[in-house]
Write a structure and sequence with these properties.
The chain is of the alpha/beta class. The protein has 18 helices and 22 strands.
């Protein structure tokens, strides 16, 4: 028997509730009927990174030293982009290995570059990529013989082709995502048979891209039906299964352009640059990608157009992600924000104006409402070092925004108004995801439970008879069947082991190209 985690990026029960009632997801319903679960609260910001690592470590980002894909270094006026080597913690599979268990990881985000474990690691999107146009073909898995098997036997791909994007989300792009879902499950099943790990983790990631662009539309329903069909691969072998997500997805009713608001309020100033000129003549990244695809020239462009030139082209919403800092007038700027909420001040914490500015921003942001609907745009604003806990909490963003319900906070600079009724995404990230334990060792109690995403690691370790590190934030959940071995056994604790890989990975520029050019830093 293998313990299996199936991670579904951006999943939440509200999204799929009607499809469950209609009988469209029979295998998931079977797991629900036999299991116990409910809502899982992610860490802020509720995005892929940091939350897949919060699951894998059982810790909040204050103990990981990574708070999202990137951070804004206002002192040096630059973006810093993270890869797997920047996280300061061992993971679930490290602890299982340390106690004699083998493990396999397939497609979990924030695992690139993949490390060597007693088992295998297949790195996942969006970080395992070279550029917007070229998917990573080698170096995505360890050990080398597993990567060779995936390439030769399954023609394994890290990313869909053609890549779905804001302007390219037609039938071909949807089918590419559906095919990739099938490929992920096929790879997991084949590696389970071939390598026989005692623990297996599988993430389905690009279904989240469909949810971003279509919310609960027909492409998303088809993706969930494909996921459900493939869940059947693991249901009849007596495995213990955890189905979980890093966060949830809700429909976007309002877009809050936080940098446009900061500019309007006098906290952020910009300089006129090439981005503005290109935008005025209608030359945007969406149009460039669409034209390149229609002419069959994406590979040619990737080879002949320098990456720095590709990144000059603005999105239709304006300047975003890695380009925001290049248009800022730093001498006249006090605050700048990243996508989905982190705000960084240019003031030193020792400056007398620092706390006064944070107080002022908190008061103004928490009072913001939609001018027509009265909808609260920001549920709460937290000081980073107070929200997080751990030795690296002081490295956190100066402020964190907890987005209002059905609000997406965009970092775009350029919109004339900071509030819009629609944007690029139809579905945005929300803090509550899902968890569901099902199998011989778990009781059947439905979906009435609540948990933190950090509870999943200690619960899995205890399920498998392993000790729980005493520096985690999560707790072992009360999910076990009466009389089962984990229910009868007391939770054991142990000293943590080092998971520090700092300095072993790529430089910031390479990581920036993989993430920003892939477009995931929307």
């Amino acid at each position: 028997m293998t313990t299996i985690t199936i991670g579904l990026d951006g999943a939440n029960w509200e999204l799929i509730g009607d499809w469950l009632e209609e009988g469209r997801l029979p295998n998931l319903q079977r797991l629900i009927d036999d299991g116990i679960g409910g809502g899982s609260e992610s860490c802020l910001p509720p995005i892929t990174v940091p939350n897949w690592k919060c699951y894998a470590t059982g810790k909040n980002p204050g103990k990981l030293d990574v708070f999202r894909f990137d951070r804004i270094d206002t002192a040096n006026q630059e973006h810093v982009f993270h890869d797997a080597t920047d996280f300061r913690s061992a993971e679930l599979w490290d602890y299982l290995n340390d106690e004699g268990h083998t493990a396999g990881v397939v497609n979990k985000p924030s695992t690139y570059p993949p490390k060597s474990i007693d088992g295998f690691v297949v790195a996942g999107g969006p970080d395992a990529s070279e550029t917007t146009y070229r998917s990573l073909d080698t170096g995505f898995a360890t050990p080398p013989e597993v990567e060779q098997f995936l390439r030769e036997e399954l023609d394994y791909r890290v990313h869909p082709s053609p890549m779905i994007s804001p302007t390219e989300k037609g039938a071909a792009e949807v089918e590419a995502v559906l095919d990739l879902i099938e490929l992920r499950f096929e790879a997991a099943e084949r590696l389970l048979d071939r390598e026989d790990p005692e623990f297996l983790h599988l993430t389905v990631f690009y279904s989240m891209a469909l949810q971003h662009y279509f919310w609960d539309g027909e492409p998303v329903r088809r993706a969930w039906e494909r996921i459900d069909e493939n869940l059947g691969r693991f249901l009849d072998a007596g495995h213990d299964v955890l189905v979980m997500s890093d966060h949830g997805t809700w429909p976007v009713d309002t877009v809050f352009y936080v940098n446009a608001w900061l500019a309007q309020e006098g906290y952020l100033a910009t300089e006129r640059g090439v981005d503005e000129l290109l935008g005025r003549v209608g030359f945007t990244k969406e149009r460039a990608l669409s034209l390149a695809k229609s002419l069959g020239m994406t590979e040619t462009l990737a080879n002949v157009v320098p990456e720095r030139v590709q990144r000059l082209v603005p999105w239709e919403e304006g300047v975003k992600a890695d380009r925001v800092l290049s248009v800022i007038d730093w001498d006249a700027t006090t605050a700048v924000a990243s996508n989905q909420g982190p705000i960084y001040l240019t003031l030193d914490p020792g400056d007398p104006a620092y706390e006064a500015t944070r107080d002022e921003l908190i008061r103004k942001l928490e009072a913001l409402t939609h001018p027509q609907t009265g909808q609260q745009l920001v549920k709460a604003v937290y000081r980073g070092e107070a929200y997080y806990d751990g030795p690296y909490a002081h490295h956190a963003p100066d402020l964190l925004l907890d987005q209002g319900q059905n609000v997406h906070v965009s970092d775009a600079v350029g919109p004339a108004e900071p509030i819009a009724d629609e944007g690029v995404w139809a579905g945005g990230n929300m803090p509550e995801g899902i968890f569901l334990f099902s199998g011989p060792r778990f009781r059947s109690a439905g979906l009435g439970e609540q948990a933190s995403i950090t509870d999943l690691l200690p619960t899995l370790l205890h399920t498998m008879g392993a000790a729980v590190p005493d520096d985690v934030d999560g707790e072992v959940l009360d999910v076990f069947a009466p009389g089962s071995e984990p229910a009868e056994r007391a939770v054991e604790y142990r000293a943590p082991i080092s998971g520090d890989r700092t300095g072993a990975g790529d430089d910031d520029e390479a990581v920036e190209q993989r993430l920003a050019d892939l477009g995931y830093l929307e």
